[in-house]
Amino acid sequence: MATILIIEDESAIRRVLVKILTEENKDYSVTEATDGLQGTELVKDNDYDLVLCDIKMPKMDGVEVLTAIKKIKPEIPVVMISGHGDLDTAVNTMRLGAFDYISKPPDLNRLLNTVRNALDRKTLVVENKRLKKKVSKNYEMVGKSELIVIIKNIIEKVAPTEARVLITGENGTGKELVAHWLHEKSNRANGPFIEVNCAAIPGELIESELFGHVKGSFTGANKDRAGKFEAANGGTIFLDEIGDMSLNAQAKVLRALQENKIQRVGSDKDIKVDVRILAATNKNLKKEIEENNFREDLYHRLAVILLNVPSLNERREDIPLLANFFAEKIASEQGTATKSFEDEAIKLLQEYDWTGNIRELRNVVERLIILGGKEISEKDVKLFASK
């Protein structure tokens, strides 16, 4: 049921609005406020889907009410009700965040269309927040070990900046997770997050993948195509396994970093891009530089902030938290009951040599969920998690 608050000091206008709305849709629940101050207090104490607010009112005018609502609950759409002499003010309220305005006396179709559109907008905003929260939870960093706490603290400080970050660590430690967290906590969180696995793209195609190409630039280029940098405009591009990128592609990435410009393959036209670059590698880039496999100037451009993700063997105290986290997640995905771990089972998991790190632990937990008993025992671990 959609809840609507009408803030209007003229009782005749309130009655008309209530009549129109309730006759249009029996699921509309309408509350009335006779002045701006009362309306603002009601917004503080209740969750409304839409507010209809007059502009000229005693105690608190419509502009003040709109400003207050945007501070209290910015997701609520506010439609202003304007008299003939208030049209200029009504238009100005749009700049302050009003969804729309309707004139007095209210036109039936105009009012209903505006209300429907505003309620649809509210639904989209709420759904977007829910999905964003769900995505953020999927990339949650689990752990309370000293090394993980240090990484979390660094992310909190670095994420809101535009600083480039080079993430290092063994395979399976969660470098992608760190990149997602940096993006989610940044000022670019509402922009795209584009991930490129440099190791998975053939060397001859990496430039086209990153920068796009024009029709006819090479065999198979049948039409113009935008690259990942253009797709990431206004957001973040994550260059995973950057140590596997060709030297030629490295040179173009360096130019993009220096000038915020790229060129599609086969074109000499500059395209401006606004992206934040995060990179990750499991290689020792300083050694790669010595062997002339990686550009030193690009390294220094990327490594403004260095973040080394510890191996699971370095943070064994996090294994109980991680095992239970994966158990709940896997059970939810499979639609089964969550299984708990006996203390001895956890102790045994903490003794293993986790060469595959977090990724390997997740696979082992999934195996135990499928094959183990109602409670994962030490015997289950010995049987099904053997190395």
Automatic annotation (TrEMBL):
Coiled coil: none annotated. The keyword DNA damage does not apply. GO terms for molecular function: ATP binding. Signal peptide: none annotated. The modification 4-aspartylphosphate is found at residue 54. CDD domains: AAA. Keywords: ATP-binding, Nucleotide-binding, Phosphoprotein, Transcription, Transcription regulation, Two-component regulatory system. Pfam families: AAA_lid_14 (PF25601), Response_reg (PF00072), Sigma54_activat (PF00158). Residues 3-119 form the Response regulatory domain. It comes from Nonlabens marinus S1-08. SMART domains: AAA, REC. GO terms for biological process: phosphorelay signal transduction system; regulation of DNA-templated transcription. This is Sigma-54 dependent transcriptional regulator/response regulator. The keyword ATP-binding applies. Residues 141-370 form the Sigma-54 factor interaction domain.
